[in-house]
Write a structure and sequence with these properties.
heterodimer; A: 453 residues; alpha/beta; Alkaline Phosphatase, subunit A; 2 domains; two-stranded antiparallel ribbon; 13 helices; 32% helix; B: 318 residues; Inosine-uridine Nucleoside N-ribohydrolase, Chain A; 8-stranded mixed beta sheet; two-stranded antiparallel sheet; 12 helices; 36% helix; 19% strand
Chain lengths: 453, 318
């Protein structure tokens, strides 16, 4: 006897539309093909890049295998210990001088995902296609955005940012081709509008004025939402409600930031530097806003690849939020003075705290098969320099978060042999993303992640 | 590995061998560091084809010893990674290695495989930092690691651009015939095969020659050999690779090497060959032996050098 199929099937790419807005949906049970129990969620990957290396004294662990006590900088990840894999001895030879002299900040960021040594120049820039873009070229057509490039700080694309290296090297992670970097989106409002659509193009001032009367993006799609809800079961309705709430929460954060920024005289506080209206003054709020949208982007399968340049390489940003008025980069050249070294550790730890908050959120989001979003992610949190004082490029601080499609068994520290190319990790990640290639950059093989469980 | 100042002028030497099996290879290593001390070359990569943590540990200790003797601040020293073939040909501890590490002052810094680098990745990476044509590779043992360098991504291109010659210790090739064949067939730059040489290094003056050195790992190894006379044949590949214009060497016309299954190497002259046989000129034997004795115990020059390095060292003073 056959069971009658009564459930209404919803397309995975369904959008809620209205007035220039288009809101993608998270995975709902109604999207499962009839008779199917589950659908295997896609594997996604993200890179969270922190600049100026680390205070390695407080980063490194002195053991291998299952994670026990974490280092001071990793401490904020204590509650996520079972989700992380610390990788040791990964090296970027292309970040080294190799006869090109000073400029480690420019080189390390330019080589981080490209695996090649960038050309020392401020004019005719040349690096290589970054591996995330190789993956995006292959699988990007399956999502609305092949990849998203995000950041949180000035992204000048021209000029000399480090000893003859163009700012294009220090301020970008992703490269579409040898000569074409992909500048990150810095303004949360710009990202929001990219994800969900925008109204007419307005100046920042006009946008700020308009924000006083702004309706939620969700209001524009009310009609579609109502229609959709009518056909959903209680579980899907709850999922949809949670998802819409997370979007609304992002909007609230954005509006708050815009309101606060509108009251700031940029000439008084920012020495004439322009800051996009949607950028929260507070680092932690900005980080949360960006990562909340990254979560939504993954949840709604808007993209499967994100690169996130937390701040740019060589940055001299101060961290008054935690009582540090010195610039980050000058602090890393600490001349072994204990108080300066301690401040570097504090900045490194502060970054990790923000990241930990994002991981916490990712643990709570369910994917299409009931697994957690985090189970299907590979997030690499790392730096392109090992020690910001020594400017070295071996044993780069690297933390992998997630399970890459329930493939990796995290909760351990794996140390590879010295001089193991970082590109070997990229090859392994490309395999997990379904885009296997034989070589990338200076790879010598693949790293073992799965069979060490 | 920050780099300040102009590019180096002296040849960068990649040294690979089955270190620790006998005293001759370790004598050769001491000679190499003697050449480095005199500014005639730079040791840019150290690796062993012997799969033994004491073998690679001795290389690491040696590298640290000489780096420390130059008094260059730690942060400006060369990358200290040392390479070891994971699937090598001689895994056993040897009396020399055991004797060195039995001493409490010589603690092996290499505890596990991951304290070492894969030789082919290390060699390729270190070569990329050399001016074109100013690198040279000397293989005192089997050609395993040199051959694997050709299999690394970009390996052949890097070798072609950076390596002026590969110098092989011919009697040692029999341990890995396949690697030797790969080298003879594919190596893109000149290959110099060094024939056995009758050279001797007497150890009766070790104590007086090394008075400048405290806890010198190679001195300890040479003493531990218990030999009154150490064969100096393995120093020839090193000396000839660095002092290419020395009159002590006789170089054959161009030709091609081949190796039989039993490890016997033969050479045939051929105008289109990239290989050459190198032999010691017997007339120069005494002069070469004198050079070996002088170089093996040469004290490294203090290279505190560079304004920025001196400034750093100054800042560290209490």
């Amino acid at each position: 006897m056959s069971t009658p199929i009564t459930r209404k099937h919803l397309n995975r790419r369904t959008l809620l539309r209205g007035m220039g807005a288009a809101v993608a949906l998270p995975f709902l049970d109604s999207m499962l093909p009839a008779m199917a129990k589950t659908t295997k969620p896609p594997v996604r990957m993200a890179f969270v890049y922190v600049p100026n290396g680390m205070d390695v004294r407080n980063w490194n662990l002195d053991y291998e295998g299952p994670l026990k006590a974490l280092s001071p900088i990793m401490k904020p990840m204590e509650q996520h210990k079972d989700e992380i894999t610390i990788l040791g001895n990964l090296t970027h030879n292309g970040g080294r001088a190799l006869l090109d002299g000073a400029g480690d900040h420019g080189r390390c960021c330019g080589s981080y995902l490209t695996g090649v040594q960038p050309k020392k120049t401020v004019v005719d820039i040349r690096a290589g296609i970054s591996f995330d873009q190789i993956v995006a070229n292959k699988i990007g057509s399956q999502t609305r955005f092949p990849s998203l490039e995000l950041g949180m700080e000035d992204s000048r694309q021209a000029g000399d940012c480090d000893s003859g290296y163009s700012c294009a090297y220090t301020n970008n992670l992703a490269w579409r081709s040898e000569t074409q970097p992909l500048p990150p989106i810095l303004d949360p409002r710009a990202l929001f509008e990219r994800l969900f659509g925008a109204g007419p193009v307005l100046t920042p001032e006009a946008k700020a004025r308009q924000s006083q009367f702004r309706k939620s993006i969700l209001d524009f799609v009310t009609e579609d939402t109502k229609k959709l809800e009518a056909g959903l079961g209680p579980t899907d309705r709850r999922k949809l409600d949670e998802y819409m709430s997370s979007i609304r929460e992002v909007e609230r954060q954005l509006e708050k930031a815009e309101k606060e920024n509108a009251q700031i005289d940029p000439h008084k506080f920012n020495a004439g530097l322009e800051k996009p209206y949607g950028v929260p003054a507070d680092f932690a709020e900005h980080f949360k806003l960006m990562t909340d949208m990254m979560t939504i982007a993954f949840q709604a399968d808007l993209t499967r690849i994100i690169t996130f340049l937390v701040t740019h390489e060589g940055t001299s940003r101060s961290y008054r939020e935690i009582g540090i008025s010195d610039g980050h980069h000058p602090l890393t050249h600490h001349r072994n003075l204990p108080d300066l070294m301690e401040k570097v550790t504090q900045i490194n730890t502060y970054h990790m705290q923000q990241f930990s908050g994002w991981v916490e959120k990712l643990k709570t989001i369910k994917d299409s098969d009931g697994s957690r979003l985090l189970d299907n992610l590979m997030i690499v949190y790392g730096a392109g320099l090992t020690d910001g004082n020594k400017h070295n490029h071996e044993d780069l601080p690297t933390m992998m978060v997630g399970r890459g499609g329930s493939y990796f068994k995290p909760g351990k520290r794996i140390v590879y042999r010295k001089e193991t190319p970082m590109c070997n990790l990229f090859l392994t990640m490309m395999d997990r993303m379904g885009v296997p290639v034989e070589h990338f950059g200076d790879s010598t093989g693949r790293v073992q992640l799965a069979d060490l469980g | 590995m920050p780099q300040f100042g102009p590019p180096p002028q002296s040849v960068g030497v990649v040294i690979d061998g089955d270190f620790g099996n006998d005293a001759t290879g370790l004598l050769a290593l001491a000679v190499l560091y003697g050449l480095d001390a005199k500014g005639e070359c730079r040791v840019i990569s150290l690796s062993t084809s012997k799969t033994n943590l004491k073998s690679v540990g001795l290389l690491d200790l040696t590298s640290r010893f000489y780096a420390s003797a130059t008094q260059i601040p730690v942060e400006f020293r060369r990358n200290l990674a040392v390479g070891m073939n994971e699937f090598g040909w001689s895994k056993e501890d040897t009396p020399i290695l055991n004797a060195v590490f039995a001493k409490p002052e010589f603690v092996n810094p290499i505890k596990k495989l991951t304290d070492t680098a894969e030789p082919h990745a290390l060699i390729r990476n270190m070569l990329t930092a050399q001016p074109d044509g100013l690198g040279t590779i000397v293989a005192l043992g089997p050609a395993t690691n040199a051959a694997r360098t050709l299999t690394a991504q970009n390996g052949p291109a890097v070798v072609e651009k950076k390596v002026r010659a590969l110098t092989l210790n011919l009697p040692a090739l029999k341990a890995d015939v396949a690697a030797a064949r790969k080298i003879f067939a594919e190596w893109p730059t000149p290959v110099i095969g060094v024939a056995p040489a009758d050279l001797a290094y007497t150890t009766d003056h070790l104590e007086t020659d090394f008075t400048w050195a405290t806890n010198h790992p190679l001195l300890e190894a040479l003493k531990a050999s218990g030999l009154k006379v150490i064969p100096g044949a393995a120093t020839v590949p090193i000396l000839s690779a660095v002092r290419v214009k020395d009159e002590g060497w006789k170089l054959s016309p161009a030709g091609k090497f081949s190796i039989a299954d039993n490890g016997a190497v033969s050479f045939k002259e051929s105008p289109d060959g990239k290989h050459r046989m190198l032999t010691l000129d017997p007339a120069r034997k005494e002069a070469i032996e004198k050079a070996i004795a002088e170089l093996a115990s040469a004290k490294p020059a203090v290279r505190g050098g560079g304004r920025r390095q001196q400034q750093k060292a100054e800042e560290k003073k209490p």
